[in-house]
Design a protein that fits this description.
Number of helices of chain B: 14
Order of helices and strands of chain A: HHHHHEEHHHHHHH
Oligomer: heterodimer
Largest interface: A-B, 51 and 45 residues
Largest sheet of chain B: 2 strands, antiparallel
Strand order of the largest sheet of chain A: 1-2
Distance between the termini of chain A: 26 Å
Number of domains of chain A: 1
Structural class of chain B: mainly alpha
Shape of chain A: globular
Strand content of chain B: under 5%
CATH class of chain A: Mainly Alpha
CATH architecture of chain A: Orthogonal Bundle
Number of strands of chain B: 2
CATH topology of chain A: ABC transporter involved in vitamin B12 uptake, BtuC
Number of strands of chain A: 2
Helix content of chain B: over 70%
Shape of chain B: globular
C-alpha cells in the first residue's frame, strides 16, 4: 500500500506539478540574493527562520491530528504552553535545562495520550467533526485556566537553552539562539519523519490515518494509534512551546501560544493542512515573510503581524484551498 | 392553523421568563441590576451566534470580533463625535452587518474546520487592529463612555434583548428560517430545492453580526469604557460556551446559556465554593462534558425530559450533524 505513506512524495499530487517547486525555489533564490546583498536582510531572514521553525513544529502537530481525524485541535497551543510551564517548574526545582527538556517531552507525550483518552475519545465516539472541534475549544479554555490556577497569571522567565553568543560570518551577526532554535525544530520534525518512515508503529499510525477500516482488518488498534498521534503532537507542541518561551519577544504566560497558534494555522493551511512537509515549508515561509514585512514595511507594526498572517491564510484558502502540497479532493455526497 | 402543544408551551414559558425579567428590578439592588444588564448582553450575543451556527450550521468562533465592531462604533461616535449613546445603536448594527457580510463571503467557500479556523483568527486579529490604530480607538488605554444607573442599563439591555428575541423568532419561523435550517441540514438538498446558498449564508452572517454588534454596543454602555482587551478571545469563547450549554438551534436555550456564562462565575465566587481563577477550568470541563453527553445542550436535555418534541420536532438532524437521539 503505497498510498499510506505519510511523508512520501508520491501522495501529494499538485495539479501543475512545477508551480510549487518553482515558487519555493524562487523564494529561496530571493532570500539568498537578498542576504548576500544586505547583512540586515540576512539577519532578519535567519531570525525569521527561527520563528518559522517554531511555527512549523506546532503546525506539524496540528497536521498530525488533522490527518488522523480531520479535526483541528484548537487546544494545541494551550497544551504546548502547559508543557512549557512544566519545563519551567522542573528548572525552577533545580533541574538543568536539557534534562528538564527531555523530562518535559516524556510528560507531554503521556499528557497528550491522557487528554485524548479523557476528553476527546468520549466526544468522538458519538459526535461529528464539529462536536470534537468544539470539545477541543473547551479543552483550550480548560488548559489555559488550569495554567492560571496552578502557576498564576504573572509572566515567568524561561532560561534560554543556548548561551547568548553571536557569530559573525562575513559581517552578518547570527545569534546562537536563532541557529539553535532552527536546528532543534528541524531535528524534531526529522526524527518524527524517521519514526513514521522506519518503525512498525509509525507504519501502523499511517495506516490508521489513511484507511481506518482496512487498518483494523489487518490487526492495527486504530483507536490506540489516534491516542499515540495526540501524544506525539503534544511532544512537538512542547518543543515549539519551550523554543518560543526562550525567544526574547515571547513572554511565558497562560496565553503565550494564542498568537503563535494562528501562525501555525496559517502555516498548516499554506502547506495544505494534510502535508507535514507542507507545514514545515509553510511555517518557515511565514516566519521569514512576517519578519521581513515587520522590518521593511514601515506601516506594518508588530500589532499588525497577526492580522497579516490571517490575511495570508484567508488568501490561500480562497485561491488554492488545497495549499502548496495538499491534494484537491472530490467529496462524495 | 392550529397551534401545536409544543408551540403553546414555548410561548407560555417565554411569557413567564419575560415577566420574571421585567419584575426583577423590584427586588434587585442597583449593582445587581448592572450585572443583570450584562446577562442581557450575553443573551443578545448568544442569540446572534445561535442564528449563524445553531440554525444555519456555519460555525463561527469570532463573535467577539463583531461585538468589537459595535462597541467601537458606539464608543467612537459618543466619545469623539458627541453623539447620544442610544442613537449609535442603529449605526452599530449597520457596521456589524457589513462586517458580517464580508466575513460571510469566504464562508461561501469554506466549510467546517476551515470556517472555524478563519473565524478563530478573526477573533484574535480584530483586537490587534484596534490596538494598532490608537488615535482612532484609544489604543490599549481605550475610551471612556458616559455612566448610567443600573436600572437604566438593565431596562435598556433587556428591552433591546426582547426586541432581538422577537425579531429572531419571527425570522426563524418564517421562510428565511426554513431556508437557514435547510442549509444547515444539507447544502446540496437546499440548493436543489431552489435555495440560493450564497444569499442565505451571507444573510445569516450579516444578521448575526449585526445583532452581535448591538450586543457589543450595549456591553460598552454597561461597562462604560472600551479597550481591545474587552473584546479579546475569551469573550468569543464565552459566547460559544453559552450557545453550547444553552443548546444549538434552540431559541429559549439562549437564556440558560446567558445566565450560565455570566452568573455561574459570580455564584461560585460569592458562595466561596471556588475562586474566580477556577472558573475557566469549570467552563472547559462543562463544554467537554456537554459535547460528550448532550451535544445539543440544555434545550435538548429538557426536551428529552419533557418528551414534548415528538409532535413538532424541529431538529431531527442536529446542527452538528449528529443524530438528535
Amino acid at each position: 500500500m503505497t498510498a499510506i505513506s505519510l511523508f512520501n512524495r508520491t501522495t501529494w499530487r499538485p495539479s501543475r506539478s512545477w508551480i510549487v517547486p518553482a515558487a519555493i525555489a524562487a523564494g529561496g533564490v530571493f532570500l539568498v540574493v537578498g542576504s548576500l546583498r544586505s547583512s540586515l536582510f540576512a539577519q532578519q531572514t535567519v531570525s525569521g527562520l527561527a520563528n518559522g521553525g517554531i511555527y512549523a513544529s506546532l503546525a506539524v502537530a496540528l497536521v498530525l491530528i488533522y490527518r488522523a481525524t480531520e479535526v483541528i485541535n484548537f487546544a494545541q497551543g494551550a497544551l504546548a504552553t502547559f508543557t512549557t510551564y512544566v519545563a519551567w517548574q522542573l528548572i525552577d526545582w533545580g533541574l538543568g535545562y536539557w534534562p528538564a527538556f527531555l523530562c518535559t517531552l516524556v510528560i507531554a507525550f503521556v499528557g497528550g495520550l491522557a487528554v485524548e483518552l479523557a476528553a476527546i475519545r468520549p466526544v468522538e465516539r458519538r459526535g461529528s467533526q464539529l462536536t470534537v472541534v468544539i470539545a477541543s475549544i473547551g479543552l483550550l479554555i480548560l488548559v489555559e485556566g488550569a495554567i492560571g490556577r496552578i502557576w498564576g497569571n504573572q509572566v515567568k522567565f524561561m532560561p534560554a537553552p543556548f548561551p547568548a553568543r553571536i557569530y559573525h560570518v562575513g559581517g552578518v551577526a547570527f545569534s546562537l539562539q536563532d541557529l539553535g532554535t532552527i536546528a532543534i525544530s528541524i531535528a524534531s520534525v526529522v526524527v518524527l519523519w524517521l519514526f513514521f518512515r522506519f518503525t512498525k508503529v509509525g507504519l501502523g499510525m499511517r495506516a490508521a490515518a489513511v484507511r481506518p477500516a482496512a487498518a483494523r482488518l489487518v490487526g492495527i488498534r486504530v483507536s490506540w494509534m489516534l491516542s499515540l498521534g495526540w501524544g506525539l503532537a503534544a511532544m512537538l507542541g512542547a518543543v515549539a512551546g519551550m523554543l518560543a518561551a526562550a525567544s526574547p519577544s515571547v513572554l511565558l504566560q497562560p496565553n503565550m501560544m494564542d498568537g503563535i497558534l494562528i501562525y501555525a494555522f496559517a502555516a498548516a493551511v499554506v502547506g495544505g493542512l494534510e502535508s507535514p512537509a507542507g507545514a514545515v515549508v509553510g511555517g518557515l515561509a511565514i516566519g521569514v515573510l512576517l519578519n521581513l514585512l515587520g522590518s521593511y514595511v514601515s506601516w506594518i507594526t508588530p500589532q499588525l503581524l497577526l492580522p497579516a498572517a490571517f490575511v495570508l491564510m484567508l488568501a490561500v484558502l480562497l485561491v488554492k484551498p488545497s495549499g502548496l502540497f495538499g491534494r484537491s479532493r472530490t467529496r462524495r455526497v | 392553523m392550529t397551534i401545536s402543544r409544543s408551540t403553546a408551551i414555548g410561548v407560555g414559558a417565554t411569557l413567564v421568563v419575560a415577566a420574571v425579567i421585567a419584575l426583577l428590578p423590584l427586588v434587585l439592588s442597583d449593582y445587581d441590576l448592572s450585572t443583570g444588564a450584562t446577562v442581557g448582553v450575553f443573551f443578545i450575543a448568544i442569540l446572534s451566534l445561535n442564528i449563524v451556527t445553531g440554525y444555519t450550521g456555519q460555525i463561527s468562533i469570532g463573535q467577539g470580533a463583531f461585538m468589537a465592531f459595535g462597541g467601537y462604533t458606539t464608543a467612537i461616535l459618543t466619545h469623539n463625535h458627541g453623539w447620544n449613546d442610544l442613537a449609535t445603536l442603529p449605526v452599530a448594527a449597520l457596521v456589524g452587518f457589513a462586517a458580517g457580510f464580508v466575513v460571510g463571503l469566504p464562508a461561501l467557500r469554506l466549510h467546517g474546520v476551515y470556517l472555524a479556523l478563519t473565524t478563530f483568527a478573526v477573533a484574535l486579529a480584530v483586537p490587534q487592529i484596534a490596538k494598532n490604530y490608537s488615535n482612532f480607538t484609544g489604543g490599549t488605554e481605550g475610551l471612556a463612555l458616559p455612566t448610567h444607573s443600573g436600572l437604566w442599563l438593565y431596562g435598556m439591555a433587556w428591552s433591546i434583548a426582547g426586541v432581538m428575541f422577537v425579531f429572531s423568532w419571527l425570522l426563524l419561523r418564517g421562510r428565511t428560517g426554513r431556508a437557514f435550517r435547510a442549509v444547515r441540514d444539507s447544502e446540496i438538498a437546499a440548493s436543489s430545492s431552489g435555495i440560493a446558498l450564497p444569499i442565505y449564508k451571507t444573510l445569516s452572517f450579516g444578521i448575526s453580526a449585526a445583532m452581535a454588534a448591538v450586543a457589543g454596543s450595549v456591553y460598552v454602555l454597561v461597562i462604560n469604557f472600551v479597550n481591545p482587551d474587552v473584546f479579546g478571545l475569551s469573550l468569543s469563547l464565552y459566547i460559544l460556551i453559552g450557545v453550547v450549554v444553552g443548546g444549538l438551534g434552540s431559541l429559549w436555550g439562549v437564556i440558560v446559556g446567558a445566565a450560565f456564562v455570566e452568573l455561574l462565575p459570580i455564584a461560585l465566587t460569592d458562595s466561596h465554593i471556588s475562586s474566580s481563577e477556577s472558573v475557566p477550568v469549570i467552563f472547559g470541563v462543562v463544554v467537554i462534558v456537554v459535547m460528550a453527553v448532550v451535544p445539543l445542550g440544555a434545550a435538548d436535555l429538557l426536551r428529552r425530559l419533557l418528551q414534548f418534541g415528538s409532535s413538532n420536532r424541529e431538529s431531527a438532524k442536529s446542527p452538528l450533524g449528529t443524530e438528535a437521539r
